[in-house]
Write a structure and sequence with these properties.
Length: 262
């Protein structure tokens, strides 16, 4: 069953994550389907600009805690490593593709969902947006390029603060921090993102695409190496930590985790 929807409207490719009951989690199937959608957009001459959104009350709540529990219970740590490969392939593609991508964010954009929004070129949000990097809350370091992308967006010190404190940023604060290209009332974000996309689509697209190439070279030229080395190695260690296992158990047992720092 497809987990996303896709349509081309007036030169705009509109991709929607469509698993609203589970808050559009970024599991392997979702990552791969999104990558296929973006690849199709990049190759389709009818698509001039891309909008990415999430159906329901959230953009994406990030990782699937049920998946984590299943892999830990079975001792399949290699499956935890595997999901990192899939999500990072998606994140890197968004940064390197030439066509502009606008994320339309409502409700929670958490963890991998937050980083999927950050990997887009522009974020349009509504007033219900809740942005967070909750990785350390469950004994993990940021994945999906989170530390790298957030550092580029808000600076190194603020990125570390937000990651360690794992607090939720509302839409107004995200706007003040410079994360947003637009902030609209609740219920309007997808239409506003599409309007913005149509406006961009009527402009000099080749110039926009070349500007994106330059921006990647200036700001993200070592991103692929970071994902393949630093993030892979740190997440390999974090997935196997006692604190991560404890956090996942505590989540399902509905109790506060007791960390050992191990």
């Amino acid at each position: 069953m497809e987990r996303t929807t896709y349509a081309v409207e007036e030169g705009v490719g509109v991709i929607l994550m469509n698993d609203p009951e589970r808050l559009n989690p970024l599991d392997i199937a979702m990552d791969d389907e999104l990558l296929a959608r973006f690849t199709a957009c990049e190759a389709d001459p009818a698509v001039r600009v891309v909008v990415l959104g999430g159906a329901g009350r959230a953009f994406s709540a990030g990782g699937d805690m049920r998946f984590f529990q299943e892999q830990l219970d079975a001792g399949r740590y290699e499956r935890l490593d595997e999901i990192l490969v899939h999500v990072n392939r998606l994140i890197l593609y968004l940064k390197k593709m030439r066509k502009l991508v606008i994320a339309a964010v409502q409700g929670h954009a958490a963890g991998g969902g937050a980083n999927l929004a950050l990997a887009s070129d522009f974020i349009v949000a509504d007033e219900t947006m809740k942005f967070s990097e909750p990785f350390t809350k469950i004994g993990l370091a940021p994945d999906a390029g989170g530390m790298y992308l957030l550092s580029r967006a808000v600076g190194a010190r603020k990125a570390l603060e937000l990651s360690v404190e794992h607090r939720v940023i509302d839409a107004a604060e995200a706007d003040r921090m410079g994360l947003l290209a637009g902030l609209v009332p609740a219920g309007c974000v997808l239409e506003e993102a599409k309007r913005y996309a149509r406006e961009l689509a009527a402009g000099p697209l080749r110039a926009y695409e070349l500007a994106k190439v330059q921006n990647f070279a200036v700001n993200y030229s070592d991103f692929e190496e970071y994902l393949a080395v630093t993030e892979r190695d740190t997440m390999h260690e974090a997935f196997r930590s006692a604190d991560f296992a404890e956090a996942v158990r505590a989540f399902w047992e509905k109790r506060p985790p007791v960390y050992q720092g191990k």
